[in-house]
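S1.2 Input.
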Amino acid sequence: MSEFGPGGSFLADCPARLAVELIADKWTVVVLAGLSKGPVRHGELIELIGGGISRKVLTQTLRRLESHGLVRRQAYAEAPPRVEYELTPLGATLIDPIHTLTEWAKTNGEAVLDALDADAEPAAQHG
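S1.3 Output.
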């Protein structure tokens, strides 16, 4: 029986599909990788990510990851207030698969870009 067909792992209500939908978000993998070195503050995480994400989107991503049990938010009773984010043990289990995906991208990224370029050429010729 296929993982993808009837009775497989990717049915609408199965955990595998939920996990894929969660990590398919544009920023999820980037944020999890940014948290892999230990607890960080919101602004530090933006710097680790290297830009491209707004404070609002980062906050939304962190809240979603927290609600799924992958990230822990720790608020400290200090003046000014300090909040840090870190991976939960469950979130840490995604770091190895993220590294594997990153290595795949390094190895195959050029081939994917070449395929995109080749696909765009006929459209440009007919456009």
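S1.4 Remarks. Residues 95-126 form the longest helix (32 residues).
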